[in-house]
TrEMBL record:
Location of the DNA-binding region in this protein: 33-52
Record flagged with keyword Ribonucleoprotein: no
InterPro entries xrefs: Homeodomain-like_sf, HTH-type_Tx_Regulator, HTH_TetR
Keyword DNA-binding carried by entry: yes
Name of this protein: Transcriptional regulator
Classification via PROSITE patterns: HTH_TETR_2
Molecular function via GO: DNA binding
Residue stretches making up the HTH tetR-type domain: 10-70
Keyword entries, A-Z: DNA-binding
Annotated Pfam families: TetR_N (PF00440)
Gene3D superfamilies the record matches: Tetracycline Repressor, domain 2
Length: 207
């Protein structure tokens, strides 16, 4: 009996997420009401408040899920490739994420320039189910240690990089401004490599 109740709750929450994603992808969140969401989800309005404070909380929760999926998929691809360099590993992951966003403009419009929100919103991550979230910050720190890089604060370094990627890719992919994403990538990745080189191990430490 208890398992049926839990399954019913899971299905209702999933319906809310699907309905909200569909609505937020088509129109600005300001024009979407909670009633719109629950009507599309086929659940009562009270059910909404069992899971979310308001529509902005729901949107941020969805962004965390979608961004986690993007980076987990990119990391899975990294594991399939024989890349043995810190900077190349980071650029590979970011390029994989960009390729996913290029092929899915609906998701990009939904995420907008909130890529870093999906990575760094700690409260939302703690609320996500284990199979819904991927901790990019932890993975980044593992790579930092693996290749013996040293940063005063690796989390801030990652934040700056994700902010740069998120801001650059939105208009570049959707509007080709200031240039198409394929032309922008070399500049973007050179800038990221320059940031990462700040923590590059010295020749002596590599011996």
């Amino acid at each position: 009996m208890k398992s049926k109740i839990l399954e019913n709750k899971r299905k209702k929450k999933e319906s809310l997420l699907k309905a909200a994603y569909s609505l937020f992808s088509k129109t600005d969140i300001k024009n979407v009401s909670i009633q719109d969401i629950v009507s599309n989800a086929g659940v009562a309005k009270g059910t909404f408040y069992l899971y979310f404070k308001d529509k902005y909380h729901l949107r941020d929760y969805l962004i965390s899920i979608e961004v986690s999926k993007l980076f987990k998929s990119a990391n899975d691809e990294l594991q399939k490739n024989d890349i043995r360099n810190f900077e190349d590993s980071v650029v590979f992951i970011l390029n994989n994420v960009l390729l996913s966003l290029e092929s899915n403009p609906v998701m990009l419009r939904f995420i907008k320039n909130n890529l870093s929100l999906g990575v760094f919103h700690e409260q939302l991550h703690s609320a996500l189910e284990n199979d819904e979230t991927y901790n990019l910050n932890d993975q980044f720190i593992k790579l930092v240690h693996k290749y013996h890089y040293t940063f005063k604060n690796p989390t801030i370094i990652l934040y700056l990089i994700i902010e740069m990627v998120g801001s650059a890719c939105y208009t570049s992919i959707l509007e080709s401004k200031p240039m198409p994403i394929q032309e922008l990538k070399p500049y973007l990745f050179d800038s990221i490599r320059a940031i990462l080189k700040q923590g590059e191990p010295s020749k002596e430490s590599e011996k």
